[in-house]
Amino acid sequence: MKNLQKGSKKLLNAWAFYDWANSVYTLTIASSIFPLFYSFLFAEGSDKIVAAFGLEFKSSALITYVTAFTFLVVSVTSPILSGIADYVGNKKNFMKFFCYIGGAGCIGLYWFSLDTIHLSLLFYFMGLIGYWGSLVFYNSYLPDIAFPEQQDSISAKGFSMGYVGSVLLLILNLVMVMSQETGEEKMQMMRYSFVTVGLWWILFSQYTFYILPKGVSNGHKVTKAVVFNGLKELKLVWLQLNQNLRLKRYLVAFFVFSMAVQTIMLVAVYFGEEEIDWGSSDAKTQGLIISILVIQLVAILGAFLTSRASSKFGNIPTLIVVNFIWMSLCVYAYFMETPIQFYIAASLVGLVMGGIQSLARSTYSKFLPDTEDTTSYFSFYDVAEKIGIVIGMVIFATIDQVTGSMRNAILFLFLFFLVGIALLFRVPKENPISN
């Protein structure tokens, strides 16, 4: 198909449609059905120990370690692969590759079993790396297909399409699971849910792939210098930060508090499954999925309120207040035991989840120097965020593994928010030159 002109409505809508395709992964696999399925693999009241890689792990710690490892792989490979894709001019092929790897991983979760734990974890790894890997190239298309004045609106449209699509599939998956009577039948429906996610992701992405341009093919061959060009650009950004004290201090603060935010978001359902007294497995299933839907709905309100607050009080003061709320949530989570308390926590998480993510990125964008090379700066931002996730997840999993309680691990995250707040207070209002 002939490439459409930059800024055309059809091209923009096709780009945004990939959000409809891939967002089902984050809601069904990462946030709801898979965590429930994983917990149901273990008998009620068991010690939930898994033998893997020659060691014995607490079940929640094992999945957290694997998640952290996946983010480590993404953080190392994404700048290298995006640099190669830009140089060779075939970013769509890279995006397709990760999409199909992720979709195949979701379908492979149908066979997830403790008896074949290593193969099962490979499928989990494939889904996670496929989602985040394809997102690197998906996001990099935005300046290629949209003019600056179109980017905010089409990005928001993609987010809303992803939200609607993922909620629709989750409701279908929920009906599939809750229509069954026995635990074994429910688990079988969960396995089918994983397949629906993989098929949804692969099939609906075809429209995006059909419309999006391949990239500017230039016949360049990949050399050793090209492979490491992305990493060199990140190093250059790091050196340039010394000339921008405000951006540098903000980035350090972001690195610290984002570490805790992303960790909580990734382990919230596992925490609710393990630490809350739901009374029965059916009540647990319904309660956790309701909590996830509550978080999704409240997050929209939270993003709006945070945006209003930042326009009135400023970005940094608003971020400080939001971090105080997150810090309080860590203490609250340590003591909560009942479903009602968990619903309250879910509502508060939703309120500050969407807000802190959107505000953190827009604050970074505002603090950038006057440069055309924004891609390198945002690549640096993404890598910093993912490395933060790795550190946060490893610390969380280790405390969970050693102490045997996720409560101790979530309370420890209190310190990250406290340090993050202190660092935000050090961000200057203006930008003096750093020596």
* C-alpha Rg (nearest Å): 21 Å
Under CATH, the topology of the largest domain is which?
A: Growth Hormone, Chain: A
Write the element-wise H/E pattern from the N-terminal end onward: HEEHHHHHHHHHHHHHHH
Low-confidence parts, pLDDT < 50 over ≥5 residues?
A: none
Number of helices: 16
Give the strand order, joined by hyphens, for the main sheet. 1-2
Q: What is the terminal-to-terminal distance? A: 53 Å
Label the overall shape.
globular
Instruction: Using the 3D structure, state the CATH architecture of the largest domain.
Output: Up-down Bundle
Sheet/helix structural class: mainly alpha
Largest sheet: 2 strands, antiparallel
Features:
Growth Hormone, Chain: A, 435 residues, single chain, mainly alpha, two-stranded antiparallel ribbon, 2 domains
Describe the structure in brief.
It is built from 16 helices and 2 strands.
Set down the secondary structure blueprint.
Blueprint: H1 9-40, E1 49-52, E2 55-58, H2 59-88, H3 91-108, H4 117-140, H5 142-145, H6 148-178, H7 183-211, H8 224-227, H9 229-240, H10 245-275, H11 281-313, H12 315-335, H13 339-367, H14 374-403, H15 406-412, H16 414-425
Antiparallel strand pairs: 1-2
Helix pairs in contact: 1-4, 1-6, 1-7, 1-10, 1-11, 2-4, 2-9, 2-14, 3-4, 3-7, 6-7, 6-11, 9-14, 10-13, 10-14, 10-16, 11-12, 11-13, 12-13, 12-15, 12-16, 14-15
